[in-house]
Amino acid sequence: MNTSVFYTDEELEFQKETRTFLQENIPQFVEPALRGDYSAMRKALKQLAKKGLLGAIHQKKYGGTEKGIVAECIISEECGKIDASVNMTRAVSTIFFGMPLSVFGTESQKEKYLPKITSGDWIGAICMTEDEAGSDLSSMQTKIIREGDEYIINGHKKYIANGTKADILAVFGILEHLEEKDPRKKITGFLVESKTKGFKVAEEYELMGIQGACCGRLEFEDLRIPVENLLGKEGQGFPILMSELNVERVVMAASCVGNAQTALDIALKYSNERVQFGLPISRQQAVNFRIADSALKVHASRLLTLEAAKYLDQRDMEQATLAASMAFANASEMHIEVSNACVQTLAGKAITHRYDIPAAMWRAGPVMWVVGGTTDIQKFIVQRQLYKSLKSKKD
Ligand SMILES: Cc1cc2nc3c(=O)[nH]c(=O)nc-3n(C[C@H](O)[C@H](O)[C@H](O)COP(=O)(O)OP(=O)(O)OC[C@H]3O[C@@H](n4cnc5c(N)ncnc54)[C@H](O)[C@@H]3O)c2cc1C
What we know:
Layout lengths: L8 H17 L1 H8 L3 H13 L18 H14 L1 H21 L2 H12 L5 E4 L15 E5 L2 E12 L6 E8 L11 E7 L5 E6 L10 E12 L3 E2 L5 H37 L1 E2 L2 E2 L4 H29 L3 H30 L1 H4 L5 H14 L4 H20 L1
Parallel strand pairs: 1-4, 2-4
Antiparallel strand pairs: 2-3, 3-7, 4-5, 5-8, 6-7, 9-10
Helix pairs in contact: 1-4, 2-3, 4-5, 4-7, 5-6, 5-7, 7-8, 7-9, 7-11, 8-9, 9-11, 9-12
The structure holds flavin-adenine dinucleotide.
The site of flavin-adenine dinucleotide (FAD) has 22 residues, from helix 5, strand 1, strand 3, helix 11 and helix 12.
């Protein structure tokens, strides 16, 4: 029987199966990964691949399941419930890298690279951010020139999740020969194998949260790639990035919901068991209102995320852009508030156990405020879309 007015029976069944599989097969990799053992992360990815959890948006002929974005959000929430860094590594490979390839790649690019991603054999990454190009991607400086049958890339990228361990990366830069005044129309994407001469990992960051994931600064010096590795068309990089970011934001919003749900579950249980002043602390309104506030924030966030996922599945890009930024702005703030409430409720127990779930969830909060565009940028997009709709109504 359907116990949700929002999910179909099939989605509920998939959610149940995914949850059971993840809870049985992933937790053992989390602590070693958080302590810096990246082989544990690779093993976790291989487990995810066994159940098709690296392939929800990809075609079956490339090892995907073709289930779509709602299913991907179910995976992201359930995986986020277990650990944000495992889910980040998973999502960056299959979605941030995999989505542009799946949608804009040629058949031979997809044949060559997608099965490696959906099987967890290879790890993917996407490279947009640079020293001068954070929120403002039009300020990218990485230069690309064409010489015969090759493109040559010179420049750098920073804060690249999965970047230091990735086997394949989607790299975006300015294609010099395009005669366009608007720099966004010169942005072009390429598929770059990390073993290519001229590719260098310049720095591996020590992250404040999601420490099981890796993130780094990359440099490209006279890196030559064949013309077949052009992603989409010359000058199509900016729209590719914008469509990828819509999906990335919804998938990360779902991860925030999963993280926060776990924090809430832990705080709910603990507050009911912990006795102080002769009573469970759940009897104190300061505590139980924190639980109530957290529960309604998590649930509201889940519904916003589901709405955005449905617009994406329906390919309604106008609605999806607004809904994705609304969902992620809300989820990233909710994640910080709910994980904070959990740490406050567990008090000393949360603070003294660095690798336990509440501390890991709490440290992941600020990360979610930054990836996929900061929460400010999500709000910028929300207001822009709202004023745009006002203008089109007037016209
Ligand atoms: C863990 C992690 C993983 C990441 N993974 C990737 C990745 O895989 N690939 C990739 O390319 N990048 C990645 N990033 C980079 C991320 O997308 C950028 O950090 C983010 O877009 C913000 O850029 P910035 O840090 O340069 O901040 P800035 O753009 O310098 O922003 C600084 C402050 O100014 C505010 N601000 C800037 N412009 C505006 C505006 N117009 N309106 C309102 N406020 C504004 C911001 O909200 C922020 O508060 C990652 C970052 C982190 C931390």
